[in-house]
Amino acid sequence: MNRTKGDEEEYWNSSKFKAFTFDDEDDELSQLKESKRAVNSLRDFVDDDDDDDLERVSWSGEPVGSISWSIRENAGNSMSSHEGREQLKGRNSFSSYAQLPKPASTYSLSSFFKGRARPGSFQSLSDALSDTSAKSYAPELGRPRGEFRDYSNDWSLSDTVRRLHRGKVCSLERFRSLQDKLQLLEEAVSMHDGNVITAVLIFLKRTLSKEILFREMEVRQVALRHLIHFLKEIGDQKMLLDLFRFLDRTEELALSHYREHLNIQDPEKRKEFLKSCIGLPFSGEDSAHIQDHYTLLERQIIIEANDRHLESAGQTEIFRKHPRKASILNMPLVTTLFYSCFYHYTEAEGTFSSPVNLKKTFKIPDKQYVLTALAARAKLRAWHDVDALFTTKNWLGYTKKRAPIGFHRVVEILHKNSAPVQVLQEYINLVEDVDTKLNLATKFKCHDVVIDTCRDLKDRQQLLAYRSKVDKGSAEEEKIDAVLSNSQIRWKN
Amino acid sequence: MGGWKHPARGGRGRWAKMAAHLSYGRVNLNVLREAVRRELREFLDKCAGSKAIVWDEYLTGPFGLIAQYSLLKEHEVEKMFTLKGSRLPAADVKNIIFFVRPRLELMDIIAENVLSEDRRGPARDFHILFVPRRSLLCEQRLKDLGVLGSFIHREEYSLDLIPFDGDLLSMESEGAFKECYLESDQTSLYHAAKGLMTLQALYGTIPQIFGKGECARQVANMMIRMKREFTGSQNSVFPVFDNLLLLDRNVDLLTPLATQLTYEGLIDEIYGIQNSYVKLPPEKFAPKKQGDGGKDLPIEAKKLQLNSAEELYAEIRDKNFNAVGSVLSKKAKVISAAFEERHNAKTVGEIKQFVSQLPHMQAARGSLANHTSIAELIKDVTTSEDFFDKLTVEQEFMSGIDTDKVNSYIEDCIAQKHPLIKVLRLVCLQSVCNSGLKQKVLDYYKREILQNPTDISYVYSGYAPLSVRLAQLLSRPGWRSIEEVLRILPGPHFEERQPLPTGLQKKRQPGENRVTLIFFLGGVTFAEIAALRFLSQLEDGGTEYVIATTKLMNGDSWIESLMERPF
User: Fold this and answer.
1) Alpha carbons B547 and B535: distance in angstroms, whole number
2) Alpha-carbon distance A457 to A447, whole Å?
3) Do A262 and A321 belong together in one domain?
4) Given CB atoms, is A418 within the 8 Å cutoff of chain B?
5) Could you point out which of A30, A109, B89, B504 has its C-alpha 20 to 30 Å from the C-alpha of B538?
6) pTM of the shown model
7) Is the peptide bond between A103 and the residue preceding it cis, with omega within 30 degrees of 0?
8) Residue A178 CB neighbours (<10 A)
9) Which residues partner with B552 through β-bridges?
10) Tens digit of pLDDT for each residue in A6-30?
11) How far is CA B155 from the centre of its chain?
């Protein structure tokens, strides 16, 4: 999703003149071309000797910017010969086009709109809705007679809806009784046309009291959904909340209220707003998420103030070496954890900015914690911290290496952060599955691990194969030769 | 053609150049394309004089499928701009026409444009063309902003069904699934019905309608109702389609969630095909001409149009990706052999013959080079460990393995900040396979996802799409044989007949296939299309399919359409 969008932005301005070609030859198809094509059984290959031919792209879908650029380029200059030819063709094609029979479609949408072309005379649907006077409804001369009827105000209820449906002018104001209004709505709903339903809803919203509107909507679920959508669309948050309250939809009410925080830029105000959300009737675990959201922002505000101060004072090494790229405010939890593993790793658990504190407060799972801490410390090339991350002591005081995410993943992450071979090899050795271990060692050129593993497996063939891959005269080759000539090993092959 | 001739299918020569690939199929979709082009011309001619078009950027893609710039130019369109805030670029034209989707946020921009233009001086004529539908809400907004009166023409251009290929139509309505199935807003169904009425006006009444699902039922009802309202003239066009099959997307939610494995499906999954175009990283397409010395590598995305106009693409697009490599290498051998022929050409006649073939050969070579590059790009992805892991998980889910537990691969994806859509897609797949997730599992995923950055930073090997199975069984032996299955799937199934006057009833020649229009309400994937094309090509299949949908989609674009936009 982002990729596409990014691409689009990236390429928007850079596309060149080839954005469109005049290959819209439409209809003018000379018999000649036709037969020539038949003879050669060629397709779509008419006038080109450029071997980029297949890349010809039409303007379609190309950034419009490039089109307008090219148009501007063209506008001033006299037409190039190519263009002139095309224009000629265009003219031809237009006349030949006119000879084509028109299919007997009665559904042409444009036919719905005929006869209201005179500038200024047109009343929009919405005008009609809000304006009862017929001041500009005066019929024009030269209009087909049937059209006059468009301006009549005597349409029956269902005709009115049908006309709205076809995009015609129709006043709703004369439907005064509640019964009429509701019937109007029901007609609209039975049309399944959202545009008409919305039209009627706008009218009802304007002419009915909230209480009555809500009450009637409650028993008309389809119309209700359209109303909710409509209120969201126009951003009438207050009425939306009133509606949810009326319907007793407490959870939607809560979520709708919560969403408002996105509109609040000031961190302090946003924090206070989130605090006010905590008591709202969210469902299930959502309450906990809201609480977490509040706590997180509260933390971030403290950390941000503190770190900005430290950075500008210029006394702290980590900030001097690695200036912060952005503020931590409003970042997701895991990003915050990464940040704290990067800048505050060694802090005692008691401080708000320490990774361990974050882990405890937000119940971050072990795997997630380890992945994040590993990425942060590896980025700083703090191999000692990496080592400590996987070292556990059992109750007898023996140390043991353990990785909740699997050592193969540890290796991949370390490699991504360009860890030296010595470090990589230490962790590759901790991978339990032998095949995975060999694969990783081969992939990351940890020769010692490969050689030792082959030796342990007594796999002479594989070792020989590996020998052909290493550099001639290198230390690894020597080592392989030494192993191969070791008479004490009982090779299995 | 079985001895009978129909206007929609005759006269192929005349249409051929317009969009040749649209007329290769069993039904000539150029007729539809021509009809919508005519509407566009009619509208442009209403605004007499020189024109500038201001485009809602989104619309340029779909419009490109029905008209090129030269058509607009014939009708005095001199400038084109994208819709942007503040002022319009200067343009010395009489008319300024906004081509826009009916969206409120676009109305705000239009108002800004119009107001700043008013201040600039000489009066222009403003017009607005809503695609596909005028919206009262939008006009209300324009009115609130005080610019509604500035527009002379406010019309709609009902581009309901856009022809994509000889057998493929789409409404390109992104929101259709969400609106129909989540918001009970049937507006897009109404458009689907309207599009079908247009098709019937052009290609004759479709005598039989089958359907499965609530939305299918609605569309059929609307069609019947519209037909009743337009009783004025009897449709005298000889029917091209024998059947219409309407299918609700929610009858088969699983298929679009799984990764597509056809060539075209994978291109779409990885790079996204938009209005039949794909943008690819340029590196693999660098020209290998001598003397170029790689001095400037291309930095622009390589943009290619993908449809059956390209012979090679038509051949490989529906194949499982594993089968594409061998086709490409065979083609390469054939082409190099063809080029070698030049050494054998001795006589003038032979040389002439060779030269006449040259353009075709060069085109074929170019096409082959492109698809070899694309195949390489795709292979880089399909051979990656992560792709394999994802596919394994999908296959496990679809076989019902461990669908009730928190899946460790999904967990890893969340932890490693894989794209949110990928994660959601897998969770949805698991949910569909498990007929819903356990609350505990759902809560777990939810918590993990929330903690992480929402950093908006053969077809399916071994699995035959249910949607396509339904189509296949309908054609033979008929749905009666699977009543039990149909009852389990959501929504009603039904059958309607639209009686034809005897003169229009088709007498099928022996061996002549039926033509079924299959309409996916809520979207369809390229892999499903591939499976239907496969059925069309079966010698004894008896049915050829033309496919229509509200949106061409894949699992990612589908999930994305369901997400709420942040304010």
Assistant:
1) 12
2) 15
3) yes
4) no
5) B504
6) 0.73
7) no
8) 13
9) B524
10) 333 332 323 332 222 223 333 322 3
11) 25
Question: How many CB atoms sit inside 10 A of residue A275's CB?
Answer: 15
Residue B482, chain A, CB below 8 Å: the answer is no
Q: Return residues 279-308 of B near A (CB < 8 Å).
A: 279, 299-305
Rounded Cα distance between A404 and A364, Å, is 13
In Å, how far is B182's CA from the nearest CA of chain A?
Answer: 10
- φ, ψ at B287 (rounded to 5°): -65, 135
At position B447, the amino acid (one-letter code) is R
Q: Which of A424, A441, A458 is the last residue of a domain?
A: A441
Q: How far apart are CA B1 and CA B29, in angstroms?
A: 16
**Judgement on whether residues A256 and A312 belong to the same structural domain of the protein:** yes
Of A217, A232, A248, the one marking the end of a domain is: A248
Distance, CA of A13 to chain centre = 21
Q: Is the domain of A481 the same as that of A389? A: no
> What CA–CA distance (Å, rounded) separates A293 from A299?
10
With respect to residue A287, please indicate whether it lies within any of the assigned structural domains: yes
Tokens 């894949």, residue?
B554
Residue A468 lies in a domain: yes
Tell me which residues of chain A, numbers 212 to 251, contact chain B at a CB-CB cutoff of 8 Å: 221-222, 225-226, 229-230, 233-234
pLDDT, one tens digit per residue, over A171-210 is 788 888 999 999 999 999 988 888 889 889 999 999 999 9
**Nearest in space to B230 (alpha carbons), one of A300, A417, A132, A111:** A111
Contact A316, A310 (CB under 8 A): yes
In a domain, A390, yes or no: yes
pLDDT band for position A109 (50/70/90)?
Answer: very low
> 3-class SS at B388?
helix
What residues have CB less than 8 Å from B134, skipping those under 6 apart? A125, A167, A195, B102, B154, B155, B156
Structure tokens that stand for B328 in this block: 């490409």
CA atoms of B196 and B190, how far apart (whole Å): 10
Secondary structure letter of residue B181 according to DSSP: I
In a domain, A172, yes or no: yes
A260 and A233 in a single domain? The answer is no
For residue B400, name the pLDDT band (cuts at 50, 70, 90). confident
Could you tell me the CA-to-CA distances from B14 to B34, B39, B255 in Å, in that order? 11, 19, 40
Spatial separation of the C-alpha atoms in residues B345 and A252, rounded to whole Å = 78
Q: Which residue, among B429, B427, B456, B454, has the nearest Cα to B443 in the 3D structure?
A: B427
Query: Are residues A485 and A404 part of one domain?
Result: no
Q: A256 with A360, same domain? A: yes
Mean of pLDDT values over A327-334: 89
* Whole-angstrom distance, CA of residue A310 vs CA of residue A304: 10
Residue of B nearest to A119 (CA): B152
H helical segments located in A249-285: 250-259, 267-277
CA distances from B222 to A162, B188, B235 (A): 13, 12, 18
- Calculate the alpha carbon distances from B402 to A60, A70, B199, B258, B539 in Å: 46, 57, 46, 17, 40
Please tell me whether residue A138 adopts helix, strand or coil conformation. coil
How far apart CA B558 and CA A300 sit, in angstroms, is 35
Axis crossing angle, helix A333-343 with helix A366-379, rounded to the nearest 10: 50
- Which residues are CB-contacts of B239 (< 8 A; sequence separation ≥ 6)? B203, B204, B205, B206, B207, B500, B504, B506
Same domain membership, residue A459 and residue A406:
no
Q: How many domains does chain A have?
A: 4
φ/ψ of B565, rounded to 5, equals -70, 135
**DSSP reduced 3-state for A331:** coil
Range of the domain at A461: 446-492
B 165-224 near A (Cβ less than 8 A): 179, 183-187, 189-190, 194, 197-198, 201-202, 218, 222
Q: Predicted ipTM?
A: 0.73
Indicate if A264 and A334 belong to the same structural domain. Answer: yes
Cβ-Cβ contacts under 8 Å, B421 against chain A: 1
